[in-house]
Specification:
The complex is a heterodimer of chains A (121) and B (756). Chain A has 121 residues and is α/β, with parallel strands linked by helices. Chain A has five helices and five strands, in the order βαβαβαβαβα. The chains are: A alpha/beta (121), B alpha+beta (756). Chain A: Keywords: Phosphoprotein.
Chain lengths: 121, 756
């Protein structure tokens, strides 16, 4: 069964990069441009894994993760956080919000797919 | 790698947008119009540029963006206060960032000294106490994001795989008991991993079963479950974690590889990794426990919650193989099973970013526009043929043709609208130009922009940047006074330059207005006389004097300044604008400032024109220039000078110009009363009466460049193909008026043959 991955990032470039890597690995990709949009797409597509950026307008990554985790329907979905920061405090905040794992940007496609495999049932 | 290249193109497009957002946000901060989100948006812009640049390995860009971003991060978290000086620094930094983006794109180079100096300034602004970082410090910032795996605090790790795993996890102290150390000596490939998950692990949607699956990829595993802490069913908290796993892993990949499996659950479980077999007694105890009760509760609890369900896949995982991911069905069930009531049905329809916009290769649109142009020509030819057969205008055929014409026009308008773009893309480059020019000339200037969303055809957009650049440079360099002079004149030391775009009667008008000193007419006049551009005894109106600055070879600057005097005078600007069918003029009020007005057709593809006959040739006169057409009476025509004539139109006299004579179609004018007179108005407002032999009517024509296909001809703006297939020249009305003013053209002018 093809797995669906939701990518949430306000940068078109990053969404395209993720799409290229994920589609190439056989995933079905749905996209959202910020956390608010992410929650909408979530209800429409019910992804198997979510990849989200942290810095986004409207609803940032932390808020998005928290919103997903308080919803009984979605809280078991693994969420990977994209982060450019080597700043451990951001990663820690994301984990506290309920992030399952993280991907350090710039990522290479193998690492990305590997990270998804690790968290996806 | 085509796909990657395409993403790179997207990245640079996005960079343009982000740089515009960045500048817009910073300008808003400068004007004090920032809400709390502005600084966040500004931060995000730089952050996104850095992120994309990192993906493409654009190191210098990443490095600079990182320093910039660090400062913005400090600003947005209120670690440093926002001040006008800081905003000014950020604006200059945004310029350097833009240079880096251009350089990364292969357009131009970055002055690394400037960049390094700016980076140093940014660092000082971020942390004033830090010693000014030497330039060489920059590369350190760029160190790969992948931090080397922290050294593991362990006694017996000499033989371990030391590969950089590319993840930055925290060191963890491992206690090794003597027994384990002994075992390691016996069998270096066997590890015992003890995992005691906390409930947080499940809260973050991590999953013990998946951890076991990952371990099984390293080599054969045997997992045993210690569920001694598991309460009886009635006391179970479904959200809590009760079990401990002990896993025997046989792998030659070393401890780092094992530890990496647990990277994401670091801190969310108690983890012990020991080399060698677990003490036999312990294993036995576990095995005994497992055999009976462990599987039973697991089965019972299946519909409850994932945490406890982690026990379910135990039997499958025990299989010593890099097993294909065993699907923990039970664990999946709670997620997938409840057919989610569509919580917000209305929002499902919200279009994703890819759905609302279609990206089309511009070449396809250009091709479409060309084809529609041909369609217009074809439709005109058809109409003309039908007309030649003398078919009554009320006939079905003629009416059908009318409808066709209507439709063709609508198609053309719609297609042109596809290619229309707001002038914003050009305008947004200008704040930087103004800053730079102001810095260079020691002036203080603030740019105010208006009508950035005015749309105009792409062909025109591309040609706007140069003239606007020149007009702005001129306005700051020659228009605005120095801050001291302004203060002395009772003005705000900061000058205001206004750049506006608007639509006016089917053209786009660009205005550049400054509140400077205005044109010094006496000086302009004397320079023009001195340079022999005009004769000293010529009396000129104020407006005419102002427009002398467009004369070739005119420059009022005492010394050639860095800014305006780049070898391009306003005359060159004027000529290039005219070549596009545009006009440029200036008005000035002493002490109050000057206004440049540039007008261009909305498109360079089509034109509404009046088709006329002159000396057997067919010409098109742009409709935008024509005020009215009339048949003059003999008494309205008065001679002026040896060969000139003027026409009395109501209460004023306008020069009478025979187009045929001006363009050298004929040697002598026929009596104006024989022909038709078209009253035209030039861009500067001057009027003239053009004499033609006959009028054929009004028509939309597709413009074909004469320059590209032949050469530039004075008095002619372009050419077109008429309904009957013949080529007709499109008259450059201003040029014709000016030709006449300057007297008859020299005899060497080539004779124009329209059918060339």
């Amino acid at each position: 069964m093809t797995r669906t991955v939701l990518t949430v990032d306000d940068s078109r470039t990053m969404r395209d990069m993720l799409r290229m890597a994920l589609a190439g690995a056989g995933f079905n990709v749905v996209e959202a441009v910020d956390g608010e949009h992410g929650l909408e797409v979530l209800s429409a597509h019910r992804p198997d894994v979510i990849i989200t950026d942290i810095n986004m307008p409207k609803l940032d990554g932390f808020g998005f993760i928290e919103a997903v985790r308080v919803d009984d329907d979605y809280r078991a979905i693994p969420i990977l956080v994209l982060t450019t920061e080597s700043d451990p405090s951001k990663k820690q905040r994301a984990r506290e919000a309920g992030a399952t794992g993280w991907i350090v940007k710039p990522f290479n496609p193998e690492k990305l797919v590997e990270a998804i495999r690790r968290v996806a049932a | 790698m085509d796909e990657l290249e395409a993403i790179k193109v997207t990245f640079f497009q996005e960079c343009e947008e982000l740089l515009a957002d960045l500048e817009g946000g910073l300008l808003a901060m400068q004007d004090g119009n920032d809400d709390g989100d502005t600084v966040n948006a500004v931060f995000r812009a730089v952050h996104s540029i850095k992120g994309g640049a990192g993906a493409f390995g654009l190191e210098p860009l990443v490095r600079f963006a990182h320093v910039f971003e660090t400062l913005l991060d400090a600003l947005r978290s209120n670690e440093i206060p926002g001040t006008p000086d800081l905003t000014a620094l950020l604006l200059r930094a945004s310029d350097v960032l833009a240079d880096h983006v251009s350089a990364a794109r292969g357009l131009g180079v970055v002055d690394m000294d400037v960049s390094a100096a700016m980076a140093a300034e940014l660092k000082i602004a971020t942390d004033p106490n830090a010693a000014p970082a030497p330039v060489a410090a920059a590369p350190v910032e760029a160190a790969p994001q992948y931090v080397d795996a922290a050294p593991i605090v362990i006694g017996a790790d000499e033989g371990l795989d030391d590969d950089d795993l590319g993840f930055d996890f925290q060191p963890m102290t491992i206690t090794l008991d003597a027994q384990a150390a002994d075992a390691a000596v016996l069998d270096g490939n066997v590890w015992t991993v003890s995992i005691r998950p906390k409930s947080d692990l499940y809260r973050k949607a991590n999953e013990t079963a998946l951890l076991l699956r990952e371990l099984s990829r390293l080599g054969p595993i045997q997992a045993t479950l210690d569920d001694s802490a598991l309460p009886t069913l009635e006391f179970i908290d479904p959200e809590a974690a009760y079990v401990t796993w002990s896993v025997r892993v046989e792998t030659d990949q070393g401890e780092d590889a094992i530890r990496e499996v647990f990277e994401f659950v670091d801190g969310d479980c108690e983890l012990e990794i020991t080399r060698g077999e677990a003490p036999v007694a312990e294993v036995l105890a576990n095995l005994l426990d497992v055999t009976a009760p462990a599987s039973a509760p697991a089965a019972i609890e299946a519909p409850v919650e994932p945490p406890v369900l982690a026990a379910a896949p135990v039997t499958e995982l025990a299989a010593p193989a890099p097993a294909p991911a065993p699907a923990p069905v039970a664990a999946n069930a709670p997620t997938a099973a409840p057919a989610a009531p569509a919580a917000k049905p209305a929002q499902i329809d919200v279009p994703g970013p890819g759905q609302s916009v279609i990206r089309v290769d511009p070449e396809r649109i250009d091709r479409l526009i060309d084809l529609v142009g041909e369609l217009v020509i074809n439709q005109a030819m058809l109409a003309q043929r039908v007309g030649e057969y003398g078919i009554a205008p009320s006939s079905n055929l003629a009416m059908g043709l009318d409808e066709l014409e209507q439709l063709t026009r609508e198609i053309q308008d719609s297609v042109m609208a596809i290619r229309a773009q707001p002038v914003k893309s050009v305008f947004q480059r200008m704040p930087r130009l103004v800053r730079e020019v102001a810095n260079m000339t020691g002036k203080q200037a603030r740019l105010v922009m208006d009508g950035e969303n005015t749309e105009v055809d792409k062909t025109v957009i591309e040609r706007l940047a140069d003239p606007i650049t020149h007009m702005l440079r001129n306005a700051i360099d020659h228009g605005l006074e120095s801050p001291e002079e302004r203060k002395a004149a009772g003005k705000n030391p900061e000058g205001v330059v206004r750049l506006a775009a608007l639509h006016r009667s089917g053209r786009i008008v660009i205005e550049v207005q400054d509140d400077g000193k205005g044109i010094n007419r006496e000086r302009v006049h004397s320079i023009a006389v001195k340079k022999g551009l005009i004769s000293p005894d010529l009396t000129l109106t104020d407006e005419e004097i102002d427009n002398l600055i467009f004369l070739p070879g005119f420059s009022t600057a005492d010394k050639i300044s860095d800014v305006s005097g780049r070898g391009v005078g306003m005359d060159v600007v004027k000529r290039s604008v005219q070549a596009l069918g545009g006009r440029i003029s200036i008005t000035s009020r002493p002490g109050l400032g000057s206004t440049f007005t540039l007008s261009l057709p909305l498109t360079l593809a089509v034109l509404d024109g009046m088709v006329v006959d002159v000396a057997g040739e067919t010409l098109v006169i742009p409709l935008a220039c024509i005020v009215e057409s009339l048949r003059p009476k003999a008494e309205e025509i008065r001679p002026l000078g040896p060969s000139g004539h003027v026409l009395a139109v109501r209460d004023s006299f306008v020069p009478l110009i025979d187009v045929g004579l001006t363009l050298n179609y004929r040697d002598r004018s026929p009596a104006a009363t024989e022909g038709v007179v078209l009253l035209v108005e030039g861009e500067d407002g001057s009027r003239a009466a053009l004499v033609a032999d006959a009028i054929h009517g009004q028509r939309q024509v597709v413009i074909k460049s004469l320059e590209q296909n032949y050469q530039q001809v004075e008095g002619v703006a372009a050419a077109t193909i008429l309904g009957d297939g013949r080529v007709a020249l499109i008259l450059d009305v201003d040029a014709v008026i000016n030709l006449r003013r300057r007297g008859p053209p020299p005899p060497s002018d080539p004779t124009l043959i329209a059918a060339e």
